[in-house]
Amino acid sequence: MEYIAIYLLFINVIAVACCFVDKSRAKRGKWRIPEKTLFIISALGGSVGMYATMRFIRHKTKHKRFMIGLPLIIMLQTIFLLIFLYLVA
C-alpha cells in the first residue's frame, strides 16, 4: 500500500511541474508540452495534482477537454481504487 502512495505522490509532483512548465512556456511563446502528454500523465495517476494546479494557475481552464476530461479521469480512478481496496481488504 505504501508503494502506491509513494507512486501517486511522485506522479502528482510530475503533473504539477508539467502544468507550471507548460504555463510558463505558453506565456513566453515557447515549445509546449503536448496535450496528449498531459492526459497520459493524468491517466497514470497525476490527475488530482494536474487538475488542482490547472485551476490554481488558471491554465487550460477554457479547454472543455481538460475541464471535463480530468474530473472524469479522477472519478474513474476513484472507482478503480475503491474496487481495489474492496478486493484487497
How would you summarize what this structure contains?
Helix content is 84%, strand content 0%. The protein has helices at residues 2-28, 35-57, 64-88. Helix 1 packs across helix 2.
Main beta sheet: strand number and arrangement? none
What separation lies between the terminal Cα atoms?
11 Å
One letter per element, helices H and strands E, the order comes to HHH
Based on CA inertia axes, which overall geometry fits? elongated
β-strand percent reads: under 5%
Structural class: mainly alpha
For this structure, the quaternary state is: single chain
Q: What value does the average pLDDT take?
A: 94
Find the count of extended strands (DSSP E, 2+ residues).
0
User: What is the tally of helical segments?
Assistant: 3
Unreliable segments (pLDDT under 50, ≥5 consecutive)? none
Q: Helicity, in percent? A: over 70%
**Number of structural units classed as domains:** 1
Rounded to an integer, what's the Rg over CA atoms? 14 Å
